[in-house]
């Protein structure tokens, strides 16, 4: 049995977009360097499995994330402006220069909802980060690129504790005001709960930011990721970040464990009759293959069940 029984829920969205982050967010936290040819094959396999968007890499300085030091070499093997969007993360204008030279059509910036994480991840204060992002977004838009914004620590911060919804909305609005077309709200350390998810989405709506501009990025540290997906679906969110095989974490937040596994999300959505366009069997084969490359089993429960 490779698919669940389908019991549709007419109160939920009929289709969603899965934003695959495995090649970037997943592999950036690996202790060993993954060969560039393996990374390129990973991206291609994910595209072939039907993932509509696959974030390929990050043009971050190799000193900070050595696992992605081969970003330029990797994108030379890929078609960044092809039919399947392959966004790249850019931390600053130098990263944007590299993305433009590589022919990127889609980029992402990565901000923080808290002062503590902004200092650790960006070496900038909470307010200072926007000044760094502004020329990146302006130039990218002038070049015709699509810009996505990530906002981390939206539900809890290991140094500051629970993060008030109003603080997240204020930070998110500033990211969108720069010109980003989508805001991905990150539960970076996986402490969010369903009620908190709905409260935050409602807070954005009350502030005048359409739910259609929001994406959700859950980590499964406390086993709440799919519960939080359902909560977000009930509020009308239709874009969810996920990582094939449950790869990933965050190199600047030790309590951040793996991302929501894409396979678990696909199984869940399929059971609700929600369209997503992903071939689950092909995706499982890809994650089994990638787990072999990394030398350890996938943490995804669906991968374990279907490949066991």
How many domain regions? 1
Unreliable segments of 5+ consecutive residues:
none
* Total count of helical runs of at least 4 residues: 12
Residue share in helices? 25-40%
Could you give me the name of the CATH homologous superfamily?
Aldolase class I
- The number of strands is 11
Would you give the CATH topology? TIM Barrel
Report the sheet with the most strands, covering strand number, pairing sense and barrel closure.
Answer: 9 strands, parallel
CATH class: Alpha Beta
Strand adjacency order, main sheet? 2-1-11-10-9-6-5-4-3
Percent in strands? 5-15%
Radius of gyration (CA) equals: 18 Å
The run of helices and strands is: EHHEEHEHEHHEEEHEHEHEHHH
Per the principal axes of the C-alpha atoms, what is the gross shape?
globular
> In angstroms, what separates the terminal alpha carbons?
12 Å
Structural class: alpha/beta
Mean pLDDT: 93
Q: Can you name the CATH architecture?
A: Alpha-Beta Barrel
Structure, explained:
The chain has 308 residues and is of the alpha/beta class. It has a single domain (17-307), classed as TIM Barrel, CATH 3.20.20.70. Helix content is 40%, strand content 14%. The protein contains twelve helices and eleven strands. The chain has helices at residues 22-26, 36-48, 71-75, 93-101, 115-122, 128-142, 165-177, 194-206, 225-234, 262-271, 280-294, 301-307; strands at residues 17-20, 53-54, 57-58, 88-89, 106-112, 146-152, 156-157, 161-162, 182-187, 214-218, 239-242. The strands form two sheets. The protein has a nine-stranded parallel sheet with strand order 2-1-11-10-9-6-5-4-3. The protein has a two-stranded antiparallel ribbon with strand order 7-8. Helix 4 (93-101) links the parallel strand 4 and strand 5 (106-112). The protein is globular. The mean pLDDT is 93.
């Amino acid at each position: 049995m490779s698919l669940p029984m389908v019991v549709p829920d007419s109160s939920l969205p009929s289709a969603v977009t899965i934003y695959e982050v495995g090649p970037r967010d997943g592999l950036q936290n690996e202790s060993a360097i993954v060969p560039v040819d393996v990374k390129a094959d990973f991206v291609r396999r994910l595209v072939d499995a039907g993932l509509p968007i696959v974030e390929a890499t990050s043009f971050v300085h190799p000193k900070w994330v050595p696992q992605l030091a081969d970003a330029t070499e990797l994108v030379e093997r890929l078609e960044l402006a092809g039919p399947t969007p392959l966004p790249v993360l850019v931390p600053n204008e130098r990263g944007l220069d590299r993305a433009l030279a590589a022919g990127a059509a889609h980029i992402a910036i990565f901000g923080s909802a808290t002062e503590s994480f902004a200092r650790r991840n960006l070496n900038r204060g909470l307010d200072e980060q926007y000044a760094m992002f502004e020329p990146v977004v302006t130039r990218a838009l002038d070049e015709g690129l699509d810009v996505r914004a990530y906002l981390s620590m939206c539900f809890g911060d290991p140094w500051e504790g629970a993060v008030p919804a109003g603080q997240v909305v204020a930070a998110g609005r500033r990211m969108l005001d720069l010109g980003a077309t989508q805001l991905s709200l990150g539960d970076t350390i996986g402490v969010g709960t369903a009620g908190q998810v709905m409260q935050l989405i409602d807070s954005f709506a009350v502030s005048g930011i359409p739910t259609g501009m929001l994406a959700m990025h859950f980590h499964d540290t406390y086993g709440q990721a799919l519960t939080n997906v359902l909560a977000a679906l009930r509020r009308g969110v239709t874009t969810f970040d996920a990582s094939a095989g449950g790869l990933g974490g965050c190199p600047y937040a030790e309590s951040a464990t793996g991302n929501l596994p894409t396979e678990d999300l696909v199984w869940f959505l399929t059971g609700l009759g929600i369209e997503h366009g992903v071939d689950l069997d092909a995706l499982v084969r890809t994650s089994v293959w990638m787990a072999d490359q990394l030398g350890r089993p996938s943490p995804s429960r669906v991968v374990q069940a279907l490949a066991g």
